Amino acid sequence: GENVEQHPSTLSVQEGDSAVIKxxxxxxxxxxFPWYKQELGKGPQLIIDIRSNVGEKKxxxxxxxxxxxxxxxxxxxxxxxxxxxxxYFCAAxxxxxxxxxxxxxxxxxxxxx
Amino acid sequence: GAVVSQHPSRVICKSGTSVKIECRSxxxxxxxxxxxxxxxxxxxxxMATSNEGSKATYEQGVEKDKFLINHASLxxxxxxxxxxxxxDSSFYICSxxxxxxxxxxxxxxxxxxxxx
Lengths: 113, 116
Description:
heterodimer; A: mainly beta; six-stranded mixed beta sheet; 54% strand; B: mainly beta; 0% helix; 50% strand
C-alpha cells in the first residue's frame, strides 16, 4: 500500500522567514496530494492541494510543488506569521473524494517572534 | 461554515463501557465517510471506511468487533468503541467525502476519548 514520509518532524523559523516541508510517497498510482494544518485539539484543515497533472500551485503565502518522477512533493510557506504555528500533514490519495487518504507523520512548525 | 459535525467533542468513561461517537455531514449526502485515530503527537491513522447501506471496510489490524461502524443514513455515521479499555484512549476523527468526486474530504473536529 501507499506510504508517505514527511520531514522534518519539527521546524522552527523566525517570523517573516520561509518554511519548507518535504514529503515522499511510494505508490505511483497516487494522484492527489493534500496538505493539512492541525491546531491543538482540532481536526485537520485542508490548506492547499495539488493533483498529479500539475507541477506547482500557489495560494497567497502558501505554495506546493510536485515532482511525479521522483515522487516528491513539498509545502512552502513564505512570510511566516505566528498564526502559522501548528502541525502540518502531507497526504496522498487516489483522487476521488471516496478514496482513503494516507497521511505523513506530521511537522510541528513553530514561528519565533 | 462547518461541513462535518462530530459529537461528542470529549468523553471520559470507565473501563469496560461502550462509547458511541457520531459524525454528521451537514451540507450534503455522503455515501462514504472515514474514521481515523490519532494518538498524542502522532499522525492520523485510518481505521475504516464507512459505506452507507453496507458493511464498513476496516484497515489491517483494526478489530471490527471492537470498533463498530454504522452508516445507516447518508448524513450520519457512528463509531462505537465496545468494552473500552485505557489503551483505546485516543483522538478519533471522522471525515466526509466531497460532494463531487473530485472535491476534497472534510474533517470533523474530533472526539477526545479518555478511558479511566
